[in-house]
Amino acid sequence: MVTKKSCPKCGSFEVDFYAGALTGSYHCKRCGYIGPIIVEEDDQSEKKI
Predict the structure, then answer these.
(1) SS3 call for 48
(2) Which residues lie below 8 Å from residue 9, measured CB to CB, with a gap of 6+?
(3) Alpha-carbon gap, residue 18 to 35, rounded angstroms
(4) Residue 26: burial class (beta carbons within 10 Å; 0-12, 13-18, 19+)
């Protein structure tokens, strides 16, 4: 199973883990969002719909 991570602000998949270990943040290369919240969905969720 593959998990896709996307930005909660713009929906881009260009998201990197930004800083810290367990309490780190994510950074979106497209819109510049920095924060702890990220949208994750597996590749199976698209097939169920």
Answers:
(1) helix
(2) 28, 31, 33
(3) 9
(4) buried
pLDDT in tens, 6-44: 999 999 999 998 776 667 899 999 999 999 999 998 876
The residue segments making up the domain with residue 27 are 3-41
Give me the sheet containing 15-19, strands edge to edge.
15-19, 25-28, 34-35
* Residue 31 within any structural domain of the chain: yes
Q: Nearest 5°: CA angle at 39, between 37 and 45?
A: 155
Instruction: Copy the structure tokens of residue 28.
Output: 């979106």
| Whole-angstrom distance, CA of residue 38 vs CA of residue 10 | 11
